[in-house]
Amino acid sequence: MDVLLSIKPKFAESIVDGRKKYEFRKNAFSKKNIGKVYIYSTTPIKKIIGIFKINKIIEDKPSTLWHHLKDDAGISEKEFFDYFKNREVGFAYEIADVEKFETPVDPKILFPNFVPPQSFCYIKFSSMPYGNKRIAHPQGGHGLADGQAIENTSGVAK
């Protein structure tokens, strides 16, 4: 199972440039065995700019997460604590094996009814008989309209 994750452009760029080593979230993914995370850079970029794998997920109090991870957080202390305001628990996804797409993918061109997920949506890759293409199918009805897919061709990722 893979995930399409909506991320603000400045943080998305920090991930693909290798400056941000952790992605912080208020909630954990309910599904286990997440394969790859596709980075959807939100407004004004509105494109899928790369992928990464999650090395591990750390669950703790926001203050503890900040204390241990601030050097690789890729976010200011104010932004971090504003995000986790009134939260007892937070999650840090350790980012690994980042691949920046040579040409970002505009999901609206591929799928006219694409609606970006508020936070994330599950996607599942299946092999299709179209050369080196892989087709991602959304799971759970979040973000993409039923029957739509996200396509990633082998030549897109660098």
Major pleated sheet: 8 strands, mixed
* Poorly predicted parts: 126-158
Secondary-structure element order, N to C:
EHEEEHHEHEEE
Percent strand equals: 35-45%
**At the first level of CATH, what is the class?**
Mainly Beta
Description of the molecule:
There is one protein chain. The protein contains 4 helices and 8 strands. It has helices at residues 9-16, 62-69, 77-83, 107-110; strands at residues 2-7, 22-25, 37-41, 47-60, 90-105, 120-127, 134-139, 150-152. The longest helix is centred in the first third of the chain and has 8 residues, at 9-16. Residues 126-158 have low confidence and may be disordered.
Fill in the keyword field for this structure.
158 residues, alpha+beta, Archaeosine Trna-guanine Transglycosylase, Chain: A, domain 4, 4 helices, 8 strands, 39% strand, disordered C terminus
List the helices and strands and how they pair.
Layout lengths: L1 E6 L1 H8 L5 E4 L11 E5 L5 E14 L1 H8 L7 H7 L6 E16 L1 H4 L9 E8 L6 E6 L10 E3 L6
Parallel strand pairs: 1-3
Antiparallel strand pairs: 1-6, 2-5, 3-4, 4-5, 6-7, 7-8
Q: How would you summarize this macromolecular structure in one to three sentences?
A:
The chain is of the alpha+beta class.
